[in-house]
Amino acid sequence: MNRHGHFDGLARLLHWCMALLIVVMLFIGVGMVSSLSLRPALIDLHRPLGIAILLLALLRLVHRWRSPPPPLPADLPRLQAVAAKASHWLLYSLMLAMPLLGWAMLSAGGYPVHMVGTLRLPPLFPQDPALYTWLREAHGALGFALFALVLLHLTAALYHAWVRRDGVFGSMARSGAVAELPPARSDIEPN
Questions:
Q1: Which pTM value belongs to this model?
Q2: Which family is this protein grouped under (predicted)?
């Protein structure tokens, strides 16, 4: 349960595992469009990682519903609080939408969705070249949106850690990893 202004261990584990997977997926996505020789191997990694992100996002949503996150600082300006909540829900939306779009895209393209071994996902749509094209463009565009949102999320986290020093970053990193810088001392005279 998320108490005392900190996320619990499961919330932190899911957050950091997904953060790593999403960063890896973004780099794999870039590699898939820029390297013909690595493309088949990267696609073979991309599919199961995408489904893993989808499943972890669903698990995170269930956990978030059962253990709501700690409240934001009371002195956080209203616009920043609204932006924080909106960006988190947008992140969750993209973590769900991107794998589903990829799965749907492959289905519409008539490509089997192989996972590991002989495991294969059922198609979400019948083969349709026009739908495949649209879904591929949407998947790519949302990939760029996810990349931008991840950078914004990282920037906000560092802002809370290094500028505001309000415990928001520490609430997710508190397991002894990285914490905020100590508050500036007011008893030290500037040179």
A1: 0.83
A2: Belongs to the cytochrome b561 family.
